[in-house]
Amino acid sequence: MTATGDARRAVEAVFRIESARLIAGLTRIVRDVGLAEELAQDAMVAALERWPETGIPDNPGAWLMATARNRAIDLLRRQERLARKVELLGREAESGPGRPEAAFARVEGGAEIEDDLLRLVFLSCHPVLSTRARVALTLRLVGGLRTDEIARAFLTSEATVQQRIVRAKKRLADARVPFEVPARVEWGERLASVLEVVYLVFNEGYAATAGDDWMRPALCEDALRLGRMVAGLLPKEPEAHGLVALMEIQASRSAARTGPTGEPVLLLEQNRSRWDRLLIRRGLAALARAEELGGTLGPYALQAAIAACHARARTAQETDWPRIAVLYEALGQVAPSPVVELNRAVAVGMAFGAAQGLAVADELAAEPALAGYHLLPSVRGDLLARLGRAAEARQEFLRAAALTRNARERALLEERAAEQEEGGTGRGRPPGS
């Protein structure tokens, strides 16, 4: 591999990790999220030009921020706002390189929020945007997801997502929306979008849509941190605690989700001694807080209750699948979606037999939103395998492998297809981790 190739891979990797913080810091400076994204992209181009010659800097994130900040200064000069802005940038520079979080916003009551990422989430979830536009824009800016990855999460087309993002940035600029955490009275109308975005970012880190890695831990960590902050700001909001509970419990399995070479390990085959008991305790405590606040459990608290069933089971065999099936049915009532119904098919299959689970999954075969969703044939393949219909199971696993864009997941599905050769030597094992 050439030095240029190494540098390009390094730039892409660093930018994927740092882009959200970079854009957040730049948005605070230039007060325009679209412009901030352009400046961040300019810094990436500069890195692609410079790093092959100079080598990768010791702190590449700080290098990108310094480069983008310098370009922002040049831009502000041209816009004749140098005096006020340069003074602000000078104060920020004194706080140390790569520390865009040094400045903070004030919210009602004088509380200080020292996190530009959280402000960027609230900005992107502003009421002037439609719900779908809010989520798409925030996934792009905060999650660092590409357009195709966001389209995959929404089960929609890339063109649709791209239009939403472009229009959202223009709408924010036209409305001159300030880069700040809103007053407490305004949080409620943005909360649903904020929680949705945080969880979608977590999901992309927990099971990457594409690429060579099964997980992207940095995204999980960012989402957990943001979720905990939101729950701290809204201590009486059950769904905020429900989301934290869900992410804590799911994150507790991280160490057990991959094997020695990075290959995926499915939920029922994981070594549960490797689950992080501290994260489980934190998750169960957050779930208890959500339940104590009363009322009907929302989608995140219900999903956390499902995750808790797995966390409380000392072995896979002790999993309370009938309760999980009931919880998925409840989830389908408050947040109906084909994906929830597919998960219910898995639970029904485990609780009441593969034939009943397959009947639920087969009802989704004509669902347009799942036409290119690899987990539908994956679930059907597993249920067919458990029924001894090896040839059909093999075809479903191969179809699922062709649909996924994650290399690790593709290899696992191809392995499961191979297990069905010669009458089915492999055992059925439900997907999920």
What does this structure look like?
Pfam families: DUF6596, Sigma70_r2, Sigma70_r4_2. Residues 190-290 form the DUF6596 domain. This protein is mainly α and 433 residues long. Among the domains are: 1-98, Rna Polymerase Sigma Factor, Chain: A, CATH 1.10.1740; 320-433, Serine Threonine Protein Phosphatase 5, Tetratricopeptide repeat. It is built from 20 helices and four strands. The strands form two sheets. Strands 1-2 form a two-stranded antiparallel ribbon. A hairpin with a 5-residue loop joins strand 1 (105-106) and strand 2. The longest helix has 28 residues, at 3-30. It is globular. The relative contact order is 0.07.
Brief account:
The protein is mostly helical. 67% of the residues lie in helices and 2% in strands.
Tally the beta strands. Answer: 4
Structural class: mainly alpha
Give the overall average pLDDT: 82
Strand content: under 5%
Q: What is the annotated CATH architecture of one domain? A: Alpha Horseshoe
Largest sheet: 2 strands, antiparallel
Q: In whole angstroms, how far apart are the ends?
A: 34 Å
* Uncertain ranges: 96-114
Approximately how much helix is present in the residues? 55-70%
Please provide the ordered H/E string of secondary-structure elements: HHHHEEHHHHHEHHHHHHHHHEHH
CATH fold-level assignment of one domain: Serine Threonine Protein Phosphatase 5, Tetratricopeptide repeat
Widest beta sheet: strand line-up: 1-2
Put simply, the count of helices is 20
